[in-house]
Amino acid sequence: MAKTVADVMSRDPIVVRKETSLTEVIQILADKRISGLPVVDDMGKLIGIISETDLMWQETGVTPPAYIMFLDSVIYLQNPATYERDLHKALGQTVGEVMSEKPITVSPDKPLREAAKIMSDRKVHRLPVLDNAGEVIGILTRGDIIRAMAVA
Predict the structure, then answer these.
(1) Which of 43, 48, 84, 126 is the most buried (most CB within 10 A)?
(2) 126 is in which domain, residue-wise?
(3) CATH number at residue 53
(4) Per-residue confidence of the chain (152 residues) as pLDDT tens digits?
(5) pTM for this predicted structure
């Protein structure tokens, strides 16, 4: 019988709120040796995800968008809104300021093969697992899938 997400997901994942400080998140990620956390609101509903990638802006900084001057006008070669978003992440102090919104999610009854394909196609490292009420009940990581393959 084909495995489902519920068969291999990590249950009761650590979650954070948008008010959580980045210092606290960094400590959790380092202590637990994990690379991302679901972000929930006061009702326990998923509102985002924070990952190592989101936190890297803190250390690497941001490069202003390339532009050219033409007849006293500035013509951006990249979208300046992207720069503003990245700058906001680099200067952020709380989860809400740097998290990625609208993460891709999965239900616990989805076949594991389909979830793995979503992760591969969308190039994500983790999928929050939501129940019918939209609450986080687990998280599926690439490591969970690899471990499931090892015992198959």
Answers:
(1) 126
(2) 5-151
(3) 3.10.580.10
(4) 679 999 999 998 999 999 999 889 889 988 998 889 999 999 889 999 998 887 776 565 555 555 566 676 666 566 666 655 554 555 567 888 888 899 999 999 999 999 999 999 999 889 999 999 889 999 999 999 999 988 86
(5) 0.74
